[in-house]
Design goal:
CATH architecture: 2-Layer Sandwich
Strand content: 15-25%
Strand order of the largest sheet: 2-1-5-4-3
Number of domains: 1
Mean pLDDT: 84
Order of helices and strands: HHHEEHHHEEEH
Oligomer: single chain
CATH class: Alpha Beta
CATH topology: Beta-Lactamase
CATH superfamily: PAS domain
Distance between the termini: 66 Å
Number of strands: 5
Length: 163
């Protein structure tokens, strides 16, 4: 298990939840959940990749582990991504812990995706920042529907102005 996975131990769970913890562990939860869970280390290398990430992005766990997040980041956005990533690792602060970030991504076949995610910073047992976990949802269909609706509204407004 990676350091980031070990960070979520029973000691982090409120006492009233210990009974539930005995029935559900991190691996079981991460493998069952419908959202992709991707954990990367301080350098941006992928250290955890759940089955939902495989379904979403097309890479198997074996293909993703040890690779950088460039695997799913469109080339044109990599510079901006890494600037933010390294700043977060240096400062220990992110604004995306509570706010949902919506960005383009790319799957194994090169198909563009629209994803929404939140992140959490992961610390070593010594308290050092050593990784980031992202919980990711594919919103490609929703994004395309919203785009089509906006286009239709614009068309209708143009027709109304011509009348």
């Amino acid at each position: 298990m990676c350091n980031a996975c070990r960070a979520a131990t029973i000691n982090d769970i409120p006492p009233q939840s210990h009974r539930m913890q005995s029935a559900i562990d991190f691996e079981q939860l991460a493998n069952a959940i419908g959202d992709a869970i991707v954990i990367s280390d301080a350098g941006g290398d992928i250290t955890f990749w759940n089955p939902a990430a495989t379904r979403m992005f097309g890479y198997t766990q074996e293909e993703a582990l040890g690779k950088t997040l460039n695997l799913i980041i469109p080339e044109r956005l990599r510079g901006r991504h890494w600037e933010g990533y390294h700043k977060t690792m240096a400062t220990g602060q992110t604004r995306y812990g509570n706010d949902v970030l919506r960005v383009p991504a790319v799957d194994k076949a090169g198909k563009a995706l629209s994803i929404a995610f939140t992140v959490a910073l992961l610390h070593s047992p010594q308290g050092e920042l050593d990784g980031i976990v992202a919980v990711i949802r594919d919103e490609t269909a929703r994004f395309q529907e919203e785009r089509a609706l906006k286009k239709r509204i614009t068309e209708l407004e143009a027709q109304a102005q011509q009348s």
